[in-house]
Amino acid sequence: MNGFLFDQNLPRVPSLETTLPIIQASELGPRPTDSELWTYARRHDLAIVTKDADSSQRIILAAPPPRVVHLRVGNMRRIEFAAWLEHVWPRIESAVRWNKLVNVYRDRIEVVR
Q1: CA dist., res. 60 & res. 93, Å (int)
Q2: What is the number of structural domains in the chain?
Q3: Which helix (H) or strand (E) holds 44?
Q4: pLDDT value at position 9?
């Protein structure tokens, strides 16, 4: 895995410390579709990080790449989201390396191999 592709529905978190690079979906164009994000992530061996269920449903029937991190946390204020993501990110990075789908809730992380 070469990095993370953050969907356009996620705010930037500049203070997030990662071991691999993060690409924002907006860097691929003004409004890339889910299929365009999937294709780009597959081609570049990236994990898609999203709040959208479409990618997590799609990976169930596919083999990586891409891998998918589905943030199932509902709406949060930007500052609250950034603090929460910074807190759980090390566990997310560890889980996504070995699993095709990582479902992240406020209180737990579940994986699908």
Answers
A1: 19
A2: 1
A3: helix 34-44
A4: 87
**84 residue type, one letter:** W
Q: Which two tokens stand for residue 46?
A: 């990236």
H or E element in which residue 5 lies:
strand 3-6
What single string gives the DSSP state of each residue in 67-112? EEEEE------HHHHHHHHHHHHHHHHHHHHH-SEEEE-SS-EEEE
- Domain holding 77, by residue range, is 3-112
- Per residue in 6-59, pLDDT (tens digit) is 999 898 898 999 999 999 999 999 899 999 999 999 999 999 999 999 998 999
Considering the entire predicted model, what is its pTM? 0.95
Helix (H, G, I), strand (E, B) or coil at 50: strand
Tokens of 60: 């169930």
101 forms beta bridges with: 68, 112
Place of tokens 């993060």: 22
- Name the residue with tokens 């992380």: 109
